Please model this.
Amino acid sequence: MGAAAGAAAFALPTAYAKPLPSPTGQSPTSQVGGGRKERTESFNRADSFIDWQGAVDTDYVEALRALRLAYKLPLDMMRSLATHFKSEAVAGLAGQPSSVRMLPTFVNKRVTGAETGDFYALDLGGTNFRVLRLTLEGGGVVGPVKSMKFAIPDTAKTGTGADLFGFIADGVSRFIALECGGDARGALGFTFSFPVEQSALDAGKLIMWNKGFTASGVIGEDVVQLLQAQLASRGIALQVTALANDTVGTMETAAYKDGAAKVGLILGTGTNAAYLEKTSRVPKWQGAPCEEMVINTEWGNLQMDGYRNVFDVIIDEATSNPGVQTFEKMISGLYLGEICRTSILHPSVARGFSPAAAAQLRATFASPSSFQSSLMAAIEEDTSPTLAEVDRLLHAAGVTSCTVRDRVLLHEACACVSTRAARLSATATAALLEQAQLDQGACTVAVDGTVFECYPHFKQRMEAALDELLPAACTGHPNAPGVKLVLAKDGSGIGAAIIAALA
Ligand code: GLC
Model:
């Protein structure tokens, strides 16, 4: 335990000659500011335990090395991934084969903030669905929002389309009864956060499911009609006038009060981005002439061969849709915990824990999804010297025998996985900004989703990586007129109402 006292020292004991890689691939001492400072501290702490009870513990060193090599994403790799993303995006816009679909959304008018009226919105696409009623007051002001949230049971996600849309319509019915005096009529914006080939602002066919949804009889069908039929059969007089992806809703929610909001991101259960594009740069657009169009990139499906590690491959193969959404599976909340679980149970990392802790971790987190992303977030939240809160969380889960070094290794595993996720998100964001030539002036990137909102340091780590990729855009500096990442809370739901107002 003696060496723990020297936590500030980064230098490896001379007995262990090979230097450990830093998680980003940079020299840790060069990492300063924002997410980098915090990462350097945690990095130094993990290294300070290399010398354990008077000797270098090779198993621990090799576990750290395995983690850091697997998850490092240095600047040259981010640049190569950005180039790959841009070439896939250009192909997608041209209608050529591409893993990035670049779907026209039929949102071709800019939101001004002057839109007014009462609207309903329905937000479906992740762990929960929400029903909202709100008033757009104009002047960029969204009035009080009434809403209800419903957890979506697996039976609805994986049953028939009628089960799923019936469950949603039942939720709307309850909302109307409890929050709207039993009577609701008017326009409803429908946020449906899956890849959809739209044929109008209020019509679109599901291309494929993801994020664990598999409801039958929906792929290839118009999801607006499926919803409208279930509403009608319950006597609900709401009219679906807009269909929107959550990324588009997020961007438009920010745009309601900020004209510089031209990109919307989701970093939650899944991940995706939408942005404002000139139609002259969308060769596949065959619709009515217009100058601009919001494009739903569906970047979660970016093909990641060559960028995935052994753990990514293992978790992809265990999903209901292997080989697709591979970018999403390296970043989003549905997968982060699973990536971490797979990593710490893998022999290359498990060897670094004390035998008792390794055995208990293996038993406690034996089944898929038993290590949630929220647990990772809570682990990273703990910055106390002995990681006392991590100890409490592990005890509660059933891991009762762990040393402070075991906790430090677990903390480091979480940090490696989530730092890579933030850097991957930043890479695609930078590539999109460059592709759309939005990296020159002021641009607000509106972001919604629990990973961005709640995961400790995620935003700062993204900003640090954006600063590396787009140094001139000054993302990390709140007063600079560059690119800014801004939380658009509840944007995915509110935005559908704003798009309904545009309709
Ligand atoms: C998935 C969906 C996409 C959605 C994202 C975030 O990637 O395909 O449409 O925007 O999840 O919810």
Q: What stands out?
A: Residues 336 and 373 are 5 Å apart (CA to CA). The radius of gyration is 24 Å.
